[in-house]
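Backbones bend. Our protein:
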Amino acid sequence: MEKASGHPPFWGLKIEVEPGAHVLVLEDRLDERRPVLERLLGSCHVTWAEDVEAARRALVEHGPFDIYCLDYDLGDEDGGWYAAGELIREHDPWSVAKIVLIHSANAQARAYYSLFPAAVFIQWDVLATMLGSPLIDADLVNAVLAEVRPGAREEELVETALRIRGSETGDK
């Protein structure tokens, strides 16, 4: 099995947002994820929402927005992502042509494409790593590649990475 090149994952890639952009962030784990997202959005005017009702208030009081950063899993709220997406579309029909950054550890977040066909989906661990909070490193990548079959697809790669991480932290 080939080892990593020595470069950190995503070496040389940068994400930048236009300074002053008006951004709505919908994220149910703000305490944990806010510091990472602030690295990306530090020069922006950000409105934070932790659930669909907070997103509704933000859209009414502060919308429309230039950029939407949307999580998929919203606590225990079944279908919350869809309700939030519909609200955004209702309050900002132009959202279909704006930057919609879907950040989630759940690959099912691609379901947002049904509402925002031009959205950008980025797996949370990748985004956090690119923004300076390394959740993916060469050791993890090498451990995953050592366990999966050649040509493994997303589901197998993700399940293996989660299992390896769980065994490292003692989670089962």
Notes: The chain has a mean pLDDT of 86.
